[in-house]
Amino acid sequence: MNDSTSLDVAALDRHSFASRLSVSKNLPIEDGRLSMTPDEVASTKPAAVLVPIVNRPAGLSVLLTRRTDHLNDHAGQISFPGGKVDAQDTSPEETALRETSEEIGLHRRHVQLLGRLPNYYIPTGFCVTPVVGWIEPPFTLTLDAFEVAEAFEVPLSFLIDPNHRQMQSAVRVGRLRHFYAMPFQGYNIWGATAGMLVVLSRLLSDS
Asked: Do 159 and 197 contact (CB within 8 A), yes or no?
């Protein structure tokens, strides 16, 4: 399935962005379910992430984080702010906003929720709900130094361009996995984060 490269990102505002997310599309399954057994899929735990779209004067960008190198899980990887659903969370949106505040210090008052991407399954045992949020600068970030090494932004136009994505493979958890990667200025955006960005690209596409 090819994405349209003719999408005018500059023409997207908050309302048109939300409108495109609300349109039902028949998307291919490209997440962890391709290498997971039905029992593994059924036993996944719920999690949620925020996909932060920042409305910069120069154009829309996506806010990402690099996890610290000492973490037991996903050390050094590029990710969206987010995590496991806690017992007190009433929705994936609540989880995403809470985790974002805890990880990078972005208060929920700065985030206007636009909608969700389809649930994304990862082989480590989670079913992740990506929640898309619109952010208007200015805002200040305060990183959790234990979990987050840095936060940075990547132009949305770069991330949704199919020419900037690669399909890679590696043996993980004893199985051959195939995954997307989007190298950007020394950052290797890959795995679930890249996969969710591909889904976002397809939802925004006119095709």
From this structure: yes
* Cα 155 to Cα 63: distance, rounded to the nearest angstrom: 9
Q: What are the 10-residue block averages of pLDDT along the chain, 207 residues in total?
A: 65 92 86 91 97 96 90 75 96 98 96 96 94 97 94 96 92 81 95 96 81
Distance between CA atoms of 72 and 49, rounded to whole angstroms? 19
Candidates 137, 150, 45, 70; CA nearest to 103 is 150
DSSP code, position 7? -
pTM: 0.92
The first and second tokens of residue 155, run together, are 């132009």
Tokens of 71: 């973490």
Dmax over Cα atoms in the chain, in whole Å?
47
Q: What pLDDT shows up at residue 4?
A: 46
Cis peptide before 138 (omega within 30 of 0): yes
Residue 91 sits at φ, ψ, to 5 deg, of: -165, 165
The number of helices, as runs of H, and strands, as runs of E, in the chain is: 5, 11
Reduced to 3 states (helix: H, G, I; strand: E, B; else coil), residue 190 is: strand
**Are residues 175 and 160 in contact, defined by beta-carbon separation less than 8 angstroms?**
no
Q: Helix, strand, or coil here: 73? A: coil
The distance from CA 119 to its chain's CA centroid, rounded to whole angstroms, is 11
